[in-house]
Design a protein that fits this description.
The structure holds two protein chains of two kinds.
Chain A: H1 7-13, H2 18-29, H3 35-39, H4 41-50, E1 58-62, H5 67-74, E2 81-85, E3 95-101, E4 104-107, E5 112-113, H6 115-127, E6 139-143, E7 161-167, E8 170-178, E9 194-198, E10 205-210, E11 213-214, H7 233-247, E12 251-259, E13 263-270, H8 276-281, H9 286-298, H10 302-312
Antiparallel strand pairs in A: 1-6, 2-3, 2-6, 3-4, 4-5, 7-8, 7-12, 8-9, 9-10, 10-11, 12-13
Helix pairs in contact in A: 9-10
Chain B: H1 2-28, E1 39-53, E2 58-63, E3 71-79, E4 84-90, E5 93-100, E6 107-117, H2 138-154, H3 158-170, H4 176-185, H5 189-199, E7 204-211, E8 222-228, E9 233-236, E10 249-254, E11 260-263, E12 265-280, H6 281-289, H7 295-298, H8 306-315, H9 318-332, H10 341-352, H11 354-375, H12 382-406, H13 420-437, H14 439-460, H15 463-471, H16 475-487, H17 494-499
Antiparallel strand pairs in B: 1-6, 1-12, 2-5, 2-11, 3-6, 4-5, 7-8, 7-10, 8-9
Helix pairs in contact in B: 1-16, 2-4, 3-5, 9-10, 9-14, 9-16, 10-11, 10-14, 11-12, 11-13, 12-13, 13-14
Classes of the chains: A alpha+beta, B alpha+beta.
Chain lengths: 332, 507
Amino acid sequence: MIRLVAPATLRRLGILGMNSRNIAYIGANNPRRNYQLVDNKLLTKKAALERGIVVPELYGVIDYQFQIDHMLEQLQGRDAFVIKPVQGSGGKGILVIVSRDGEHFVKSSGGVIDYRDLRRHTSNILAGLHSLGGRNDFAMIEALIDFNPALGEYSYEGVPDIRVIVFRGVPVMAMMRCATHASDGKANLHQGAVGVGIDIGNGHSIAAVQHGSLVTHHPDTGACFKSLRLPDWDAILDLAASCAEMTGLGYLGADIVLDRLRGPMLLELNARPGLAIQVANQEGLIHRLKVAEEIANTAPDHDARIRMAREQFHRPEPVFPAPETVPAPAAD
Amino acid sequence: MIASRAKVGIVAGAMILFGLALTAYKVVRLDLPLWPGESREVWTIETKISFKPSDGPVDVELRLPGGLGGWVTLEEHFASSGFGFSVVEEQGGKVARWSRQSLEHPTTLYYKQQAYRARREALPAFPVSEVEAPLLEADQQAAMERLVVDLRDRSSGPATFAALLVQELARAQPGQDAEFLLGTYRETPLRVALDVLAYAGIPAHSVRGIQLQDGRRRQTLSELLEIHDGSDWQLLDPVTGVSGLPDNFFVWHRGDGAALRVMGGRDSRLEFALVRNSLSAKTVVSMEQRSDDFALLDFSIYALPVEQQGIFKGILLLPVAAFVVVVMRILVGIKTSGTFMPILIALAFLQTTLLVGLAIFLTLVSVGLWIRSWLSHLNLLLVARVSAVVIVVILLMAVLALISYKLGLDQALTVTFFPTIILAWTIERMSILWEEEGGREVMVQGGGSLLVAVMAYLIMSVSVVEHLTFNFPELLVSLLGVILLIGKYTGYRLSELYRFRDMANMK
């Protein structure tokens, strides 16, 4: 028998549903003309640089098929880089090369591919395979993030990124997405990545969820999520709120990574952020969105909005499960 | 936001009311039945007369069917722009006459009628005229004499004589005399038969009519042989020799003389387009009673040309399928690959029937995925790869059709109804999905698409749904209103009640 939860319960918990998100938040707060800035990662990067927001370094852009060989030759000197579609969605089509092995390239998952695979992947990106609506696209080549080693143990074969939902310039909810072996190095929660709810107040972990159930330790690395404290939390919130101002979108998801040297860095923006963040935080979004609306109406400026959000959304009690359910870390 | 909600509510409400009110009006005042009760097969017959004019005045005469064999005409309509037009009563029935002083271009005239067979009755009495022996060459006469003597020997009366004659003429290797007659006449066996019957002194003539086949577009007149056996007229199929009036034969006219005469024109052709509709008995009766002042029915789909009616039968079902997709995605939250792909699959299922369709679909997609995985090694550009998959899908369809035909499984021939391009894209998307998100997601989305397609199919194939959409297209306006309302639904999806099921335990 499939167990369902009553709609009334979800409503009481303030869980945001897909229809409500689409109509009441995205439809009502995100003017369509501003989507371009978010959906096109090159435009995002350009706008971010103008505002002094830190982004990964751009190595180059490939507009046409015939440029592929030339561009890839220029990568000779670089061992690590990322190729992604300029208008990709949901992390599709992102190829992360972490090192070289002679003529071969090593992916973040440890898989080895050769030059032909790299060409094929780039060619697919240009043909629009991974892009919104299947339009022709461009491929961009970026520096690989040298992510903060303090967070290294929380992710397996992938970069842990921090998703912050910003509503009308107020940071509302945050989570860190940690890749696992099950998620194949991807930070997608529905593929088995761990979502760690983050306290807006102080950047500490609140809860960790994999496949919808609470966990305390990373299934592959064994790191304990309870002790997770995000460094540079002020800067992360500041960056997320600035992105909202930059794009003019009322309901926005900012994906942020922590670079070892350069600190919080904007990876990409999302005008249609998913709902899984509620599971990771074990809390519904709706109540917080209502509070955020008040903050947005009363706070005079950027800093005041962040300050009030940190006060309002601070959670004193994390919801990690009792210690006896701690699974043994995978032996490797 | 509240304002836009209210606006949508008012517009949607008005649409729903409009559709329901118009439907109610048609049901209550015009007696159109809401449910498909006992039904009658109503044939819409579109007669097309085309010819090339020569110099001088043009005069076209078409004999009109006289309601023989229990056929009742519900409605008739003539298209005769630029022509003088009249229907005159002549001996032997009504004749439609188009005339014009001069004409320059090849022209087509139309006559459309709706008819159904109210009673299954035989053809009425018909005067027996004096039989005139045909004028023949000496050798023909000798052959005919021998044939008649031979047939007389073997038959017991005019009826068996005619049956044997038809058999003789239709044989692959007719006897010497019959073969000689057929060879020298250079005419259809029916003409030869009529002359032989005349020679034998048996009154006979041809009966022209239409073989009714749903969806036929260029049907021509066919003929039956009618002979008098001394007391009654008997009908015979001149090819098979079967006696009696076939069920699917619409009698156009009886006796000698042409159905169509064109003076001042050449290369004239008489062709028919046919569509069958199942109309409820009540509708048919009400149409019969007031075929003149049935204004609202004039604005219904039935007023369209026959070919378009057939197309609309299918098109009017599409909104219902779209509605299923809307409900399944917004209210239930099922993931499908491609928003409207399920509708196209469901349309294909309508042609193939469900189980055959499912089998074909699964075969095509799985073989396609397998071939696509091989193509992915070739490192092709996307558009070329999808095109390659399109061609592979078409070849697969051909192979499937051939194999099933050889095995005697006619149903699998309907494979051609599957939308090739959509299938190719589905295969391409699924294979990418497989590479990027794993087989599980492929199963979820593929299964979701199939589930929605099957549901859409099941709803579209309910006869009430087809009856309602075709007879009350205004209900689609109501459906549009409902879809607008669902478009404003901000509640939870059914799938979310499952997705967030563990959230109920928190705190």
